[in-house]
Write a sequence for this structure.
């Protein structure tokens, strides 16, 4: 059995990818197919969300197990979670976070189930995919807080600093070098 999954983006009305993928494939295989279909590098912490009919997010399927310690709650990783774990239970809506820093997503919906098996493939490709990472303004003005001033004395009043005005009572000063 194979799933026919339609991928769309709210950012680009003319963008669409239809993917045919085996029901036993993992979410990692679906992620790899999506990245390749859009020409994106595989260098982001992408993830999937299982959504209800109103597109409200439920379970998350992450690229890696990012827990700080063992917790009682279930964690689903892409490599260890088969599509059938969720899609055979009536789930037809997923979100794929392709730009985790800006929470930009593709909306995926299961359109059909077909007989057969095989490697994941894009069976229809329409339009250009949006850029994977949102534009970031790394100009000097943006780095200096938008004012364009790199003079920290103006911003923080360093020129008016007087060490005689500091009351050191209650502070322990160590002579130890680290």
């Amino acid at each position: 059995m194979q799933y026919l999954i339609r991928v769309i983006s709210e950012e680009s009305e003319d963008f669409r990818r239809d993917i045919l993928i085996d029901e036993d494939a993992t979410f990692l295989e679906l992620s790899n197919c999506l990245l390749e279909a859009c020409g994106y590098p595989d260098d982001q912490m992408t993830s999937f969300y299982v959504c209800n009919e109103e597109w409200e997010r439920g379970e998350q399927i992450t690229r890696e197990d990012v827990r700080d310690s063992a917790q009682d709650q279930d964690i689903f990783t892409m490599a260890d979670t088969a599509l059938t774990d969720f899609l055979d239970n009536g789930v037809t809506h997923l979100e794929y976070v392709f730009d985790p820093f800006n929470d930009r997503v593709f909306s995926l919906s299961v359109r059909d189930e077909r007989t057969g098996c095989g490697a994941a493939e894009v069976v229809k490709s329409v339009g250009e995919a949006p850029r994977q990472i949102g534009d970031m303004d790394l100009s000097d003005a943006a780095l200096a807080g938008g004012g364009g001033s790199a003079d920290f004395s103006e911003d923080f009043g360093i020129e008016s600093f007087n060490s005689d005005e500091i009351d050191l009572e209650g502070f322990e000063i160590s002579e130890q070098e680290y």
Confidence is low (pLDDT under 50) at residues 136-150. Residues 15 and 128 are 6 Å apart (CA to CA). The helical segments are 27-38, 84-87, 140-143, 152-156.
